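DM from R.C. (forwarded with permission)

"hey, sorry to bug you on a friday — could you get me a structure for this? deadline for the figure draft is monday and I only need the backbone to look sensible"
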Amino acid sequence: MSNGHPIHFNLVAAAHAAMIEHGFQPDYPAGTDTELAAIQAHHSEMPAVAGIQDLRQLLWSSIDNDTSRDLDQIEWAEQLPDGRIRVLIGVADVDSRVHQDTIIDGHAKSETTSVYTGVKVFPMLPSELSEGITSLNENEDRIAVVIEYAVDPAGTASDGKAYRALVRNRAQLAYNAVGAWLEGNGPAPAKVAASADLAAQLKLQDAAAQRMVGGRFQHGALDLETIETRPVMLAEQAIDIARLEKNRATSLIEEFMVAANGVIARTFETAGVASIRRIVRTPKRWDRIVEMAANLGTTLPAEPDSKALNDFLLAQKQKDPDHFPDLSLATVKLMGPGEYVLVKPNEVSPGHFGLAVQDYTHSTAPNRRFPDMVTQRLMKAWLAKAPQPYSADDLNAIAVHCTLM
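My reply, with the result:
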């Protein structure tokens, strides 16, 4: 207190300073406004694309955080006669507006990601794009890269492919409300309650996701649960802390995105296209994980084994759910950081130990991650049978910088 008045700490200014301290440039460079104005002047014009499909009639929806404005993907599913569920993921075609080697693209390349500080979002792309023209906003026509696959009863995704399409998000939904409804712990969100077709669509998507999560856990994917929180802001002051909970809706989107990213990685592998992969290497500190498990009464194999580790984690979650987030965080730290790496044609990817997948890239969030925009450009060039826009050296440099940031 000072002179009887509370001292208010400017959290937004502190976040801005912290960004600069950590090597980010939260302010856009000179020339951004001019480029942005040119994009906005033509935003209602759909870029001409030969052979593009029109899928605007499908009942697409998005599920994201309650506060999200940069919508990168929408989903739709249908039941197939053979028992499989066909899933379509529409990913915002950001590259159709933000062209390579422009000022805006250069800034995104430097920042590599949008940064969510809780008190303020520092977007990789100007918010007029990421929350507007390139966001898959409700009831707006957009161009997307569609990633398609079919999920069998065992949770295996097959028949993966990608193509470009016109799409239209019919319902923007949020994790908390959809998750509570899917789990039977809350009423249907208003948009879901008003549409039996949308309710059936989400139930089908959930069924596909539940198949996949079961299949991945059988192959050793790790069921981790770290605590995420966000400040509740009022007039730029933090008045409370809210905990972000995992639920069926967050699981649905996670499973869909893991499968979609696998489709893109395998497409590049088959096509002989160099690409950037997202990896988590086999833990070098496995002995510390073994020691941690032993202290809790479980013996793990001497060599890294994701299936054995996940069995241990699932048992501990049942035994001591209150401390499971702490165990998850300790496990994440001992596994080591994720990386972006270049994978050339005919090279084997190191894979993602935590997800128990060998082929994994980042492709589903181009509004907020630069590697996804690079992947999108690689995929669009391959679809158009055009020269690839990046050399192997370019991709390696981008991967190294993205890992650093």
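R.C.: lifesaver. The chain has a mean pLDDT of 89.
me: no worries. DSSP finds 13 helices and twelve strands in the chain.
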